[in-house]
Amino acid sequence: MDLGISGHTAIVCAASKGLGRACAEALAAEGVNIVLNARSAETLEKAAAEITAQYRVTVTPVAADLSAESGRAALLAACPAPDILVNNAGGPPPGDYRSWSAADWEQALNTNMRAPIALIGAYADGMAERKFGRIVNITSSVVRHPIDAQGLSAAARSGLHGFVATIVRGLAKNNVTVNNLLPGAFATDRLLSNFAFRAKREGQPVDDVVAARKAELPAGRFGDPAELGRFCAYLCSAGAGYVSGQSIVLDGAAHPQAL
After folding, report:
1. pLDDT at res. 259
2. Going by fewer Cβ within 10 Å, which terminus of the chain is more open, N or C?
3. Which segments of 92-150 does DSSP mark as H helices, in order?
4. Residue 258 — pLDDT band, cuts 50, 70, 90?
5. Which DSSP state fits 111?
6. DSSP 3-state of 166
7. CA dist., res. 134 & res. 241, Å (int)
C-alpha cells in the first residue's frame, strides 16, 4: 500500500531506539526523508547510519535535548519546514507522588508537555501554509488508564492531550492533522525499567514480574514497536487527512474501550 508520502520530510523525536525508531523506520520504508533526534549523539549516529543503509533515504541526525529551548532551536535550524512531526520522549521515572520534588515536576512537564507543544507551535503554521501536515504525539495509555506509580507521566501527558484538543479544528481546513498514539505495554527499554522498579518495590525477581504481566495481557505478549511504527506511518499518510484530534490506545485490548 502506497501511503503517498514518498519524498516528504519527517522529524521523529527520541528515535534512536524503541518506539521512536520504529516510527522512523516505518516512515523511511515509505520513502520519507528523516530528521532523527535523540540526546545521545553516539547512539543516534549509529541509528541514522543503519536506517540510511536499509531504506536509502536521507537521514539527518540532530543530537539535542528537546526539553531545553536550545535543543529545540537546534532542531528548528536543522529542519525549518518538515511535512511530518512525530513527537516522542521517554516518560519520567515511576515513583511515589509524596517524594516528587519541584525539579521532578519541572522535568516531567518540560519533557512530556512543553517540548512537544513548543514544536507544534514552531511547525504547524508552516504546514498549514503548504496545505499538508501530519503531527503525531506518542504519549502513553496511562493517560486513559492510570497506573499508580506513573503519576508524573499521566499528568504531563494529559496536559499535552488537552492542548491538542484546542488546536485541531483550526488546522483541519489546511490538511494538517494532529493525533495522539497511546501505547500500552510494548517491548522497549522503558518497559523493562518500569518492571525493574516494580520488582524492587515488591521484592520479586524481574523475570517473574515480566512473566506475570504477560500472563495478564489478553494478547499474551507485549507489543512489537514495529506495530506502532506502522500505525504511526498510516496516520502520517496522504490518505489520513480526515483523521484528526484522535487519541488512539494501542494496548492489545488490555483495557476495555468504549466501542
Report:
1. 57
2. C
3. 102-109, 115-130
4. low
5. I
6. helix
7. 8
